[in-house]
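Re: weekly structure request thread

Next one in the queue (223 aa):
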Amino acid sequence: MSSLLEIRDLLVRRSGRTALELDHLSIEKGRVVALVGPNGAGKSTLLLVLARLLKPTRGEILFNGQAIMSMHVRDYRRKIGLVMQEPLLLDMSVHENIAIGLHFRHTPGAEISQRVENWSTRLGIEALGSRKASTLSGGEAQRVALARAFVLQPDLLLLDEPFGALDNKTRTDLLNDLKTLLPTTGATTLFSTHDEREVSTLADSKIELAGGKICNGTCQQEG
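Done, posted below.
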């Protein structure tokens, strides 16, 4: 299978220190990959760089063989979905939050309604469509944030500790739902986590980070 992402000689410095340094990393299309490691390992930094919200100091990132920095930022971001640990929802209804990205893309109204209904149903939030985002529980809000990403049909889905702020039952329910949903999207997914249960449930493979570097199989020894 061909690679969706290829990273070469990547260096990211934040506040004067090296936050991420990767010689080479390749992610195959359609894979679900977990980023694991302690706080400060570089997991969120990598996701922010891939979302083009953080500019690397040096290096090259290829997306379907094309350097992402040569792509217009709008065109690139239309190919990705990003969900953070704390859902960033707008002060509007659930339906409007899910649909907003499609409106920006001038998607026809009938198609917007169909996509929003489809993902609302698949994520079990179809009854919440008229509710204001501010009235939602944490688990409901995260499901809305995921639906907002999924309706865009992204090639690349970036999830930054999507279960981290949820209680155990809510986390388990959402984890089980995503286990079923993610393989149906066709998206390549990278998600950061501290939880081995999330890795074993969702991931095809994992990348272990420590000190901003990949240390698969050697993290404990290094310390």
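Helices lie at 43-50, 73-77, 94-104, 109-122, 138-150, 168-185, 196-202, 219-222. The chain is about 35% helix and 25% strand.
Next request, please.
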